[in-house]
């Protein structure tokens, strides 16, 4: 009987943790952690960001309404704390992505897979930066060169053979944990798969789990 009660309690705790991990606040925190730990830019969480912005707007209106109605200051401060937390998570998530765009913009621009992961505003930002840099290069450098050297094109400047273009280091070890109750990972240097139970933490090559991030695996 004791074993049955224990098993039931464990199952209920798992269900509770699953429910809590699916709230937008937790999902945004997870997306932020994944983005921060991953060496390359990940898929933009468009729907999650949209919901977060809508919730932040609603919380701002609620806090303003409570302040004007003279509600208890402690209650207002609690709502304000939730608002500040939501704003921090959203800004941190977007800031981490912006840092990657600034660092790897040329690499992302020429990589169709990574380019497709960006939001429309992010694509506009990268394209504008590249256009501005090309214009600056043309005005400051190329225009001062002899005529036969002024035909240098952008594609040659950021070609795949150009070692000056920064690239994310994918051959790096990162810490990850299993999101689901059981995850099996195929390791390149081992015949046996790495088996992880829920919340187990392991250090593996990023390449091994890059297609499982956000589905079966989260980064820590």
TrEMBL record:
Look up the domain of life of the source.
Answer: Eukaryota
Output the InterPro entries linked to this UniProt entry. GINS_A, GINS_bundle-like_dom_sf, GINS_Sld5, Sld5_GINS_A
Please state where this protein is localized. Answer: Nucleus
Record's keyword terms, sorted: Coiled coil, DNA replication, Nucleus
Annotated Gene Ontology cellular component terms: GINS complex
Coiled-coil boundaries: 42-69
Swiss-Prot/TrEMBL GO biological process terms: DNA-templated DNA replication; double-strand break repair via break-induced replication
Q: Where is the GINS subunit domain?
A: 74-140
Q: Which Pfam families match?
A: Sld5
Q: Per the record's keyword annotation, is Isomerase included, yes or no?
A: no
Q: Tell me if Nucleus is a UniProt keyword of this record.
A: yes
Reported function: The GINS complex plays an essential role in the initiation of DNA replication.
Family named by the database record:
Belongs to the GINS4/SLD5 family.
Q: What is this protein called?
A: DNA replication complex GINS protein SLD5
């Amino acid at each position: 009987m004791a074993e049955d009660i224990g098993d039931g309690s464990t199952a209920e705790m798992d269900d509770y943790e699953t429910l809590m991990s699916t709230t937008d606040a937790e999902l945004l925190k997870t997306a932020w952690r994944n983005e921060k730990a991953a060496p390359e830019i990940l898929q933009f969480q468009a729907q999650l960001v949209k919901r977060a912005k809508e919730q932040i707007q609603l919380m701002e209106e609620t806090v303003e309404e409570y302040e004007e109605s003279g509600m208890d200051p402690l209650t207002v401060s609690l709502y304000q704390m939730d608002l500040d937390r939501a704003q921090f998570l959203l800004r941190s998530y977007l800031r981490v992505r912006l840092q990657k765009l600034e660092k790897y913009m040329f690499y992302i621009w020429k990589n169709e897979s990574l380019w497709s992961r960006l939001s429309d505003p992010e694509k506009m930002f990268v394209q504008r930066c590249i256009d501005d840099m090309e214009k600056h290069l043309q005005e400051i450098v190329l225009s001062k060169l002899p005529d036969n050297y002024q035909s240098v094109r952008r594609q040659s400047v950021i070609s795949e053979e150009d070692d000056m273009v920064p690239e994310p280091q994918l051959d790096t070890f990162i810490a990850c944990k299993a999101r689901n109750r059981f995850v099996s990972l195929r390791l390149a240097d081992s015949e046996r798969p790495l088996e992880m139970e829920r919340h187990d933490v392991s250090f593996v090559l990023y390449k091994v789990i890059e297609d499982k991030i956000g589905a079966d695996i989260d980064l820590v």
